Amino acid sequence: MAPATQAVQTFGKKKTATAVAHAKEGRGLIHINGTPISLLKPEILRFKVYEAVLVAGQEAFSAIDIRLRVKGGGHTSQVYAIRQAIAKAVVAYYVKYFDAASAIELKKKLVAYDRTLLIADPRRAEPKKFGGHGARARRQKSYR
């Protein structure tokens, strides 16, 4: 029987977008829905995904391959879900297979830069109600 591979599975969420990250031992590759991270569209939001890698440092990712599956939401929500999943995956991998001290240090570094890298944003769109055009807006009242 072959030895079990070292792997962790984490997720990131933003609004209705969900990204599931599967991190395993490797050589630093990151793929999103089967394509490399460098080909992520739109280009402007690509740097948001790179933030998790740049803040943690390239050496933190050098021994890990991360595969991501993303669905739901729009472009921006998906990008925020991806960056959260990547950050959570590298922290979980360090906790499980490296020492906890380096994982805590990594966690502090990520939270100091941006809290949403590890903690999900609980805000959701409020449902529309009757009697108006949106969740809170009402039709204007007329007396004549």
Query: In this structure, how is the largest beta sheet organized?
Result: 5 strands, mixed
- SS elements, strand count: 5
Alpha-beta content class: alpha+beta
Distance between the termini: 83 Å
Q: What proportion strand?
A: 15-25%
| Strand neighbour order, sheet with most strands | 1-2-5-3-4
- Described by the principal axes of the CA atoms, the overall outline is elongated
Q: How is the quaternary structure best described? A: single chain
Mean pLDDT: 92
- Count the DSSP helices: 4
Radius of gyration: 19 Å
- Give the H and E element order: EEEEHHEHH
- Indicate the low-confidence ranges by residue numbers: none
The helicity comes to: 25-40%
Give an overview in words.
This protein is α+β, with helices and mostly antiparallel strands. It is built from four helices and five strands. The protein has helices spanning 43-56, 58-61, 75-97, 100-113; strands at residues 7-14, 17-25, 30-32, 35-36, 64-71. The protein has a five-stranded mixed β-sheet with strand order 1-2-5-3-4. A hairpin with a 2-residue loop joins strand 1 (7-14) and strand 2 (17-25). Helix 3 (75-97) runs antiparallel to helix 4 (100-113). The longest helix is centred in the middle third of the chain and has 23 residues, at 75-97. The N and C termini lie far apart (83 Å).
